[in-house]
Amino acid sequence: MIWNLGSINADNFYRVPHLPGPGETLAATDFQQGLGGKGANMSVAAARAGARVTHIGAVGPDGDWARQRLLEYGVDTPHIATTETATGHANITVDISGENNIVLFGGANQALTNQMIGAALAEASPGDTLLLQNETNGQPFAVQTARTLGLKVVYAAAPFQAEAVQALMGQIDLLVLNAVEAEQLESAAGRGLRQLDIADIVVTLGGDGCRWHSSSHAQAETFGAYPVKSIDTTGAGDTFTGYLAAGLDRGLPMKDAIDLAMKAAALMVTRQGTADVIPDLKDIQDHDFS
Question: What is its EC number (predicted)?
Answer without folding.
Answer: 2.7.1.15
